[in-house]
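User: Hey, quick favor. My workstation is busy. Could you predict this chain's structure for me?
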Amino acid sequence: MDVRQLRYFLAIAKEGQITRAAKTLNIEQPPLSRQLKIMEEELGVTLFDRNGKQMTLTEAGTILQSKAESIIHQLNETITEIKEIDQGIQGMLSIGSVFTCVSLLPEKIAFFRERYPHVTFKILEGDHSVLGEYLENRSIELVMTRLPFESNYDISRYEILRLPSDPFVIVVPKKRNWRPIQTSFLLKDLENIPLIALKSDKTIQLNEKIVNECRRLGFEPNIISECSSVAITIALVVAGIGVTILPKSVLSSFPISDIELFDMPDTTVQSDVGIVWLKNRYLSKSARRFIELFKKESTD
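Assistant: No problem, here it is.
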């Protein structure tokens, strides 16, 4: 069995049928079928259950898929590492980010591009679960995220560079009829004010930190809506439905003509931020240099 056959096998597993896999691989269908038969004969197992044209992995096929993906990833990383020995910083750097951390990237990317103009960027946005999958399948090398990183995998798989914490602020609509105009807010002032929480089914720690702080101050927050989208959360605030609490840096990505921001002097609770990457994978030169930009910031 060779690497070419493993690539063929993975294409069939992904597409679920020989015809589509052959098109993806840009080869004819009969040679692909022959290679699959050779693999099954060599291993002495059936890798796919056939139901007409549709093919699903058997238990043996599922195990081989996992091992084959690991082998291909390691091979690709080895090739990249060898190529980079005599090359400068170049190529594409793939980064994932939760939306609440997107505002932390532009300044660093601009600075990085000045120093390394031959590096291009691919940036993918998603929640912790999605970004964890992107790391696993090597779609990205790094994740900019709020901590803790709530992926579907054991946290021990990751290296984490903690960055300076981000203070929370109360986001209030400028036009509001449910509360007299105030020039300052305490977190305790929100006891009877409608609160819009930033929370998804899979990322709950940010919201829990705020809820726990409210309870520490002796009240239960009046949460009238939970939103997984920052944009929708702010839209509800602008409409005067309630207020929200967000990390301060998030607001730099939005026009603030319709909202006001207030610090909370009665609490020191902050949002933790970090860069996450897989421990046991090769990081490109550009990824290592990008991390170094943030390492300097975290130690200043």
